[in-house]
């Protein structure tokens, strides 16, 4: 039995159209940069604007779209609003897209070298 059938990972999945909308939402470099900036912790609009090199107004517009798509969530502290990723899936999706992009430019991408180094360290520790 295929374990993926219950998770919606089949061609007949009712989630395919929604997945396309997620890809469409992420088809913008500023939004990808925002998600990368939010990988580890929540940030204010001004801090995000500095990190992605855009104006706070532009970042706010992107965040509003990401919030409507339920990719980011907010927390209010007084008059300040802090943004965070709504779940781990956007983080993983963007990381995988960056890794795929690395494959287009490098025969041995950095993420594979890190995996190989980690595997070698585990093997070395097991043999010690």
From TrEMBL:
PROSITE patterns: HTH_ARSR_2. SUPFAM superfamilies: Winged helix' DNA-binding domain (SSF46785). Residues 11-105 form the HTH arsR-type domain. InterPro entries: ArsR-like_HTH, HTH_ArsR_DNA-bd_dom, Metal_resp_trans_reg, WH-like_DNA-bd_sf, WH_DNA-bd_sf. Keywords: DNA-binding, Transcription, Transcription regulation. PANTHER family: ARSENICAL RESISTANCE OPERON REPRESSOR ARSR-RELATED, HTH-TYPE TRANSCRIPTIONAL REGULATOR KMTR. This is ArsR/SmtB family transcription factor. It comes from Agromyces aurantiacus. The lineage of its organism: Bacteria, Bacillati, Actinomycetota, Actinomycetes, Micrococcales.
